[in-house]
């Protein structure tokens, strides 16, 4: 079953499409790249497109179209992917599902579980158990 699990790689879709193909000026392109960086740095925060656009100084429509061209997805979908990939990395190190869900920005465990399963094909707990380190060290054996 481990073979079927997706392995999270670095999420850098902003590098997929060259800047020349976007309908943005050089300044707007810089701001779009800043939006990608801001989401990467602060992925656990709530980032509606309007808030992100304001934070980087882009009109919301330019931000949305820039994301569609550069990442092939919406701001919201990109943020969800970032969160889930960070979650997978933490789960693989044996962190608790609850801690990970809240740490990456989910406030509802059910939503986290559904999103994680949709992304990776397994529940977060199964992913942790199959890929992650054990939460507790095994009991020490006594020499006889």
Set out the fold topology.
Layout: H1 26-41, H2 49-56, H3 60-71, H4 75-92, H5 97-103, H6 109-120, H7 124-131
Helix pairs in contact: 1-2, 1-3, 2-3, 4-6
Task: Please describe the structure with a list of short key phrases separated by commas or semicolons.
2 domains, Arc Repressor Mutant, subunit A, 7 helices, 144 residues, 56% helix, 0% strand, mainly alpha, disordered N terminus
Would you kindly provide a brief summary of this structure?
This protein has 144 residues and is mainly alpha-helical.
As a whole number of angstroms, the C-alpha radius of gyration is 18 Å
Beta content: under 5%
Shape: elongated
What's the domain count? Answer: 2
Main β-sheet, in a few words?
none
First-last Cα distance: 38 Å
Number of helices: 7
- Low-confidence runs of at least 5 consecutive residues: 1-5, 12-22, 136-144
State the share of residues found in helices, binned by percent.
Answer: 55-70%
Can you write the helix and strand succession as a string? HHHHHHH
By DSSP, the count of extended strands is 0
- Class from helix and strand fractions: mainly alpha
What does the average pLDDT come to? 84
């Amino acid at each position: 079953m481990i073979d079927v699990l997706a392995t999270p790689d670095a999420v850098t879709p902003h590098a997929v499409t060259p800047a020349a193909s976007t309908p943005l000026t050089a300044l707007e392109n810089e701001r779009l790249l800043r939006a990608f960086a801001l989401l990467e740095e602060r992925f656990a925060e709530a980032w509606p497109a309007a808030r992100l656009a304001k934070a980087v100084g882009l009109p919301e429509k330019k931000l949305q179209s820039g994301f569609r061209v550069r990442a092939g997805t919406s701001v919201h979908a990109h943020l969800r992917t970032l969160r889930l990939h960070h979650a997978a990395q933490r789960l693989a190190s044996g962190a608790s599902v609850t801690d990970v869900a809240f740490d990456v920005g989910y406030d509802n465990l059910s939503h986290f579980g559904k999103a994680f399963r949709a992304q990776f094909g397994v529940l977060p707990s199964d992913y942790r158990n199959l890929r992650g380190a054990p939460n507790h060290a095994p009991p020490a054996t006594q020499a006889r």
